[in-house]
Amino acid sequence: MNKMNVYQDLMRIVQDADRVKYDEMLSAYTFTKTGGEADVLVLPESYTEVQEIVRYTAREGIPVTVLGNGSNVIIRDGGIRGVVINLTRLSAIRLEGDHIVAQSGAAIIDVSRFALKHSLSGMEFACGIPGSIGGALYMNAGAYGGETADVLDHALVVDCSGKLLQLNHRDLQLGYRNSAISRNGYIALEGTFALTPGHEPEIKAEMDRLTYLREMKQPLEYPSCGSVFKRPPGHFAGKLIQDSGLQGTRIGGVEVSKKHAGFMVNIDHGTATDYINLIHHVQKTVKAKFNVDLETEVKIIGESRKL
User: Fold this and answer.
1) Catalytic status, residue 297
2) What residues contact residue 71 under an 8 Å CB cut-off, 6+ apart?
3) pLDDT tens for each residue of 43-59
4) Active site: which residues (predicted)?
């Protein structure tokens, strides 16, 4: 792949030099502040642009990686080959009756605040989730007993050929941290959420309660990728890690949080390799002590740095 040729082709699609970049460091686009270079990064601002980019890359056989706001992803230090589509410019939120329509680049927290402003209940659980709507649709994000599946009515996606598809709740097949979007390689463009009219003071009180719990329990003072592991059947990942004596364990600049064992924090210029090595160490230790396999919730993508 000739990066300059791809750059020029994408420029013809988006016609904005500020929205196409090559050899772009992806550490600026992730919550962990880690990640190597993207061959070419493009930031579309319309659904048509997304479709055209997908059609172009499919026609040319160029690999595509979709990136939201990078809150639950680790990008390896070798970066990502091909084209990275960053959807954060698609961030509009609008009201349609008792429904909220949010584009994939909108922050989930902003959608929950928008719901509060319009006295709509149902998004309170999302008030502390740092991800984007696209990520929430992709992995059925949830917290504090609620999840995206509880309120999502339908979604608009782009398939691998660039075709727009509207998927209803049943089509989306939302499960624990997965969906038809992730399984089929779709790109989420927007979600429509069916909410319930409520009372603003009560909605705010619940959001304040959940925010307090999050601030008390989670290491928000450091860069992190959020909850690292999925909840294993019959267990809690954080409890297993804590009972394995792993809190405070450090590899390079990354540490198992002393505040919440389910988190790994970048405390001193850690790298993606540090994160991945620490993840493997935690998995190996918990397996040896409790015979439980910890599966990552965080998505690990990209290539290892060549020696």
Assistant:
1) yes
2) 30, 31, 130, 131, 132, 135, 225, 226
3) 999 999 999 999 999 99
4) 177, 227 (proton donor), 297
